[in-house]
Specification:
Layout (H helix, E strand, L loop, with lengths): L1 H10 L5 H12 L4 H8 L7 H6 L3 E5 L5 H8 L6 E5 L5 H11 L5
Antiparallel strand pairs: 1-2
Length: about 110
């Protein structure tokens, strides 16, 4: 998104839907057509746990307590999750995580 933002700012114009997929493919170094067809234009659920594990983040289930539990019973049942940093993440995962969570320089 940062690269697409910079491209749009330098050209002075917006971008089309296809530009997002094209920029993602350029950054990833491979076509992203299948990914966009499945997860953006399609209805498949993103494999968040698998994807975040690659950058040292994991899902932890969190049980609702007290008033939260009562409210949850009134709504559709849904899982509450918490994201945690994996203390055993590889150095590569930590570098990737740092790069994608760095603030945009202004």
């Amino acid at each position: 998104m940062r690269a697409l933002y910079e491209q749009c700012m330098s050209s002075g114009k917006g971008f089309a839907d296809g530009d997002v997929a094209a920029m993602c493919g350029k950054i990833a170094g491979k076509p992203m057509d299948e990914f966009f067809a499945k997860y953006v234009d399609g209805v498949e659920e993103l494999p968040f746990a698998e994807m975040l594990a690659k950058i040292g983040i994991r899902f932890a289930k969190q049980e609702a307590r007290g008033d939260e539990a009562e409210q949850d019973n009134r709504r559709r049942r849904r899982e509450t999750i918490r994201l945690e940093f994996d203390p055993e993440a590889s150095e590569r995962a930590l570098k990737i995580r740092a790069a994608i969570t760095a603030p945009i320089a202004r």
